[in-house]
Structure formats: C-alpha cells, structure tokens
C-alpha cells in the first residue's frame, strides 16, 4: 500500500514530492506552496477534461462497432461510411489554409535533416549513449556491422584485412560527399593535400583534424599518424567522424515499463540528469569499471582564426505518455491522476532548468522545451494538449509556447484529421511522424467488427497504409512544416541488419522525411550517410501529393482471401511469438525496449507497439472465426517453448512453458482474449496491472 504525503490536496509519493521540491523547484527558486496550489488547480480543470476525452473515444468506438455489425456482409460504400463518420464527429471539417507559426525552434529540428534516436529513459547508460550519438565513428560503424560489404572481422584482435576494407569504404564516402579537384581522397598524402571542388564545404580545424559540411551535416576527418589506424594510412587519417543523431527522444512511454512512483522517479531523475548535464553511469566491461558521462562540445577554428563550437550532444526531446493511463505516484480527488498530466508538469519543470541556463551544457539554444505527445486521437485531443501546455507554462512562469510539441500520427482519427490536429497546436508544433505498428493496431481495433483483416505482411502494401504515409508528408508540407519542424518516419527495427538498412532506409528521405528513427548510435552514424546523399529539403519542394481520404479510410479487410491451414498457423505463430518474447521481459524484468529475437531468430528492437498490433490481429481473427481459442492456446504453448529456448542464456529469465499461471504468460493470454475490450486496443492497462503484481511478488 502506497504511503502518501499531501500537498494542496494532492496525495503524492513522499520521495517524488521531495524530488520535485528539492531537486526541481529549489534550483529554479520557485515557491513550493504556490507550485502545489497551482498544480491542484490545474488538475481541477484538466483531469475531468481528460476523462471526458477518453469517454468520447469509447462512445465513438461503440457507434462504429454498431455500424459495422448492422451492415455485416455488405460492401463498404465510402460515401455512406464517411457521411456516418462526420455525423458522429469522428471526421471534422478541415481548417482553411494556414501555416504553422512555431518560433524559437533549434536548427536540428527546423533546418537540418538527420537521424533520430528513441531511447528508454529508465536506462541511464542507454540514455547517455543516445545523447552522445550526435557524433559517431564511421570506421567503427563499418568495422562492426554488415553495412561493409567485406568478410567479417576475424576474432582475436584487430583484423587488418577488414580494417583495409573499412578505410576503402571511408575514402569512397569522402569522394561522394567531399569531392576533390582532380584526385581521390585515396590519393592524398596528408591533411594539407587536396583541394575541394566546393571550397565552401570546409568549416575549420579541430583538435583532431579537419571539419567539413555537406547538406547541413558535419564531417570530421581526423588525422593521427601515431594511432593504430593512422600509422598504417597513407594520409595518416585515423577516423572519419560523422554528425549523426541530431535529435534524441528520451522516452517515458512505449519503450519503458514505468508503472509506479519508483519507476516515475527514476525517469524524472534521469531526465533531470540530462538537462542538468551531470548524468553518469558506471558499469563493468572487460574486467574494468567504466563511467559514462555526457560529451562536451566540439571546438574548431575557422580560416580567419576565430573560435567556434558545435554541440557535442543530440538535441533532446522527452516523450510523455498519452491521455489514457493513470499512475499511483499521485492521487487527487480520491483517484490516481492522469499520467500524461503528471509528465507534462514534471518534465516541463525539469526542462525549465535549461530555459533558465542552469545546465552544464544546455539543450535548446533557442529557449524551448521539446515534448513528444503520443497516442492522441483527433484534433480535440491535440487541442487539449495545447491548453494543458498553456497551463503548465503559466504554472512555471514560462513564456507562451516555450513548450513545443511533437504529434505522433499513430491513431486513425488523427491521420484522418491531420490538418485539424496540426492546426490545434499550430504555434508550438515541431514534429509529426508515422509509425506502422501502433497505427496498424488502431486500424484493426477501429474496424474490428468489419471483418477479418489482412495478414500483417500484406498490410505493408495495403491502400490505407500507402495513403497514410504520403498524406502525412503532404499535409505537413502544405501547412508549412518544412524549414520549421520535423516530418519523421518510423523505426528500422533490426539493429544487426545494417546492410539492408543502408539499401532501404534512404527511401524515407526520398519520401520527404527530414528525420527517421534508428535503433542505435551505430545505426545513426550509418543512416547519416543517407542525408549526405540526398538533400531532403530540395526533395520536399517537389512533393505535395495528398492522397484522398477514400484511400486512407479503405479498411484492410481480407475480402475473398482463402488462407491455407499452414498460412493461418504461420501468421498466428508469428504473432504469438512476438507477443510472448516481449511480454516476458516487460512483466518479469521491467524491460520496456530490447532486442527481441523474432520467430526467425532475427533480433528486432521491440517496444509496446508490437504487442498492440499482434494482440489486436489475433483478436480480430478470433472474432471472425479464422482461428479458434484452442488454436491460440496451442500456438501460445508452441511459441512459449521457442521463446524459452531463445532466452536460455539469460540467467534472469523465468521460463514461460512451465509457468502458464505466471504473470507473463497470463498477461500475454489476456492481451489476446480481452483484446477487443481494451481501450483503443492499448496494452498498457493489462501490462501495468500484471507488472505491479509481479513487483509485489504476486
């Protein structure tokens, strides 16, 4: 039972209260009592509004369910369907012409194009790695991954043959990005040799070499003839360092298992450590204790002798949770408060340290706080977030629109009303993006009763998904996001398949995205190559196609498809394996994001969104008789055995197959069998309940 202290009528975990008062408000010089009084007033206004929005979601879903049930077996007429959606308020009238008015946006978001990392905020080591991924060694990225088309490194120390292939690939990159007059980078003898075809690419000299810029991103060519690499190199080049992860999202949401005050306090403490600049983490590696801290800035001197510096770290966003969940960390009026409101207040208060210049390094050079807001359904919910951020700014004494917002376009009602959603936050929006997993999960749940859905693989080429991806970019460009905000694309999930990523992920740039998610700092370094090859802002000028709403609202039903028994079993096993492999780590170990082997033993970076799509897909097939409950249980048991085998080397792993009554297997089973009744198909309510039970020893 949680013991609370009371502040202005808010019951709060005592350690969290002490953290807020001492670590957050103290350095800001804020009046503690006034803060709590203001927080209570904010809850009085926004907690009921939050509840009303969630009730509206349920009401709309009930009406959509009834509409499909009443028309069972009939083809869907788009005219009739859209008229119905407008009548119930699911579709709204589009706003007239407008352009976003966001101001004081850092160049990493507004005018630069480059990779973006998403990192679980509960893991300080990962958080530091991501924040420091602003600069990455291209040599290391090539040497350690299959992005290099050469035999893998032989074990037992440095492989000179592999190293030579890395150096050759590095020279090839330099010839593409920084071409010289009349010669190759492979021909130069030292740092003074060679002349750029475009001399404006030269930026200056660093302590380790020469600094250049291409398509807005920097390249540092390091020279050191005393280093193991440089002494074997004709020109003495020891490394090529790329500006890589321009931005990083510290995630409080889908990639973490944060279910109580203890978890929230760790999240907020890590966020404060990043903003303050003093976050550190010690760990054992190779028999030694290493300590990781935030990187300093990169200093350089221009040709005229003047000194300058570039940020040494990613520009940091923090992703708050959505509107759905509450958290026992605080209670108000006898109930747990909405976790999204708690996040908005506390992460913004921590961000205010940066605005006040209290950090060692600084995050935003424009005085802004960057918050990504996920899982909003439609413009009314975006408007709620805008009003909430207004109130938080007033509570903290921040100028209007200091808090910027990134809108995750991952719910069907948001996609269908994207222009109105952008308009609702038009003076603070800095980001829109797309994501396959959550968006498909909501696609299935919204139209659950319309009929059985396509297989997940077929979804990727379906009409609605193609329209969704194109509409997101087209609508964003139409309303002035280019040069002011990020238009992003989703995650490359396979961190071990960098060669494939280098072939495929450049497509995100060609589609008009000026950022895209990658699963690791190494992937960010490699993905940066794409931004040297393509000028995204030039590409955006040639785009503007917005597919019609008919295409977006085309429901991905498997009309006329007659799957074989083997195809059905294959799809079911794929869903059950992915679900179990992730749930067992989430529930038993509190790991919200990790490289989870898929059914083919390929490691994929999974977060909670994979559960939503998998559980909703199985629930849909169950509802429409494609599969039976018995088949689901047989698949769960088959895949439990496989997941047990895949985790056999983990000393902390608790087997699934021998523990069907345990928390992890029980949660996985209920995510499927209770999937239809979960709000919007979300997995959080069940996951949180079972994780708390596990933490309590149940």
Keywords:
Malate Synthase G, Chain: A, Domain 4; Malate synthase G; 698 residues; single chain; transferase; magnesium ion binding; MSG_insertion; globular; 16% strand; alpha/beta; Malate synthase G - maily-beta sub-domain; seven-stranded antiparallel beta sheet
Short structural summary:
With 698 residues, the chain is α/β, with parallel strands linked by helices. The strands form five sheets. An eight-stranded parallel β-barrel has the order 3-9-14-17-18-19-20-21, surrounded by six helices. Strands 4-8-7-6-5-12-13 form a seven-stranded antiparallel sheet. A four-stranded antiparallel sheet has the order 1-2-15-16. Residues 567-648 form the Malate synthase C-terminal domain.
Structure description:
The chain starts with a strand and ends with a helix. α10 runs parallel beside α12 and α21 (565-589) packs across α24 (663-673). By secondary structure, it is an alpha/beta fold. The chain is globular, with a radius of gyration of 26 Å. β5 and β6 (209-214) form a beta hairpin.
* Continuous helix count: 25
Indicate the mean pLDDT. Answer: 97
Low-pLDDT runs: none
**What is the number of strand segments?**
23
Name the beta content range: 15-25%
Integer-rounded radius of gyration: 26 Å
Q: Architecture of the domain at 565-695, according to CATH?
A: Up-down Bundle
Helix-residue proportion: 40-55%
CATH homology superfamily name of the domain at 565-695: Malate synthase, domain III
